[in-house]
Amino acid sequence: MDVLSFRTPGLGDQTYLLIHDGRGVLVDPQRDIGRFLDAAAERDVELRFVLETHLHNDYVSGAGQAAERTGAELVLPAAAAPAYPHTPAFHLEDLDGGGGLTVRPVHTPGHTPEHTSYLVLIDGAPVALFSGGSLLVASAGRPDLLGPKRARSLARLQHLSLRRLAALPPGTALYPTHGQGSFCTATGAGRLTSTIGTELTDNPLLAIDDPEEFADALLADPMPVPAFYRHMGPANTLGVPPMPPTGVPELSEPAGRVVDLRPRHVQADGMLPGSYGIEMDDDFGSWTGWLLPRGEPITLVAEPGQEIAEAVTQLARIGVDTVQGVVRDLGENATQTYRLVDLDAFVRLLRRPDAQFLDVRMPSEWEQARLPGAVERFLPDLFTRGVPAALDQERPVLVACASGRRAAIAAAYLAGEGYRPVALTGAGVADALEKIK
Predict the structure, then answer these.
(1) What is the pLDDT of residue 189?
(2) Which residue spans adopt a coiled-coil conformation according to this UniProt entry (predicted)?
């Protein structure tokens, strides 16, 4: 048996391809299925099953398309009841893959009500568990994505589900879908894979016997929920069309919302007024999907020769298929600017008596480290609630986060609103605190 892992860093997720004796099982595939099917074809694998652990909240699925293209059996939790043909997975009702390969569904509600993990047996012996958003490495899938009213009930179910999985043989390999960097984890998962035995020793949630205490731990400090999440469940319930083409036309004039994905130092020197400045990175799609209104046409701004296929792919993974094209030359229209400064320059500006500082980190990050006198507004709230009234347009606004990523996005927004932003790049609030001690 071999297990291939396909990491999607910007979403903090993993897709898996299990291979045994020429037969394959694909687990929780994202929409860009080419990378999974190519890997199977290269190894001459007959894809037997495509498994979904739950109706995903963080991306649109490629499971239906993968099954259709390969003839594999599409399997979803029985309680998911999606609006397309599939095999329902019932608790402990084995699926025979042939050649000694068996897939055993294990109902593990908590992350979602229908959530199902899959235990793989080879010749009757359990070897691998695909736990989706249930038992994670040193953590568990968060139970509050379907709203606060259901969160505690789902947290109690998650307590039972984790104990159900912890009773499996200690040597069983653990392959969760959600991992480090995912907003679907409750407490910040660490490593990507593990074993049941390791989790019994190292996972702090498995040491909590009382369901209410467990729920308290899971719900104590919830992370924000990205705005695009609310669209993922319905899309995965109704079915997702194939990936759009990743090549888009070159435009001379932008249409709709404009997203500038050039490096931040290029953006700072000149952007189209009112455009979104979201530098291309692993999380480009997540931030774009979170900050832009859903369903509107999008024009990308890129440098000459800059590759944009990855940007289109990241957006398609969360169901954003409205990219109209790319503009590569803004000419004299690039009139919106902001400043980028390093840590030393930022601290010098902070020490000025007229300094005003905006911290755009998450609330949980504020609790860990705070700069005195900071105006605090989490980056997405800046876009939905507007610029805090405490900030003065007539004075520079110093902006920081943890690394410079979110600060640059916020600076572009502030510039479009008529402010004079100065963003800390290459460092964050914790670094500034160390400097001013």
Answers:
(1) 46
(2) none
How far, in Å, CA of 53 to CA of 58, rounded? 13
pLDDT number for residue 255:
87
349: left (phi over 0), alpha (psi -120 to 50) or beta: alpha
301-312 burial code (b ≥16 CB/10 A, e <16): bbeeebebebbb
Length of the chain: 437
Please give the Cα distance from 36 to 13 (Å, whole number).
Answer: 14
Task: State both tokens at 22.
Answer: 């020429």
pLDDT of residue 81 exceeding 80, the answer is: yes
Which of 234, 223, 253 lies closest to 294 in space, CA to CA?
Answer: 234
Evaluate if pTM is beyond 0.90.
yes
Mean pLDDT, range 240-259, rounded to an integer: 94
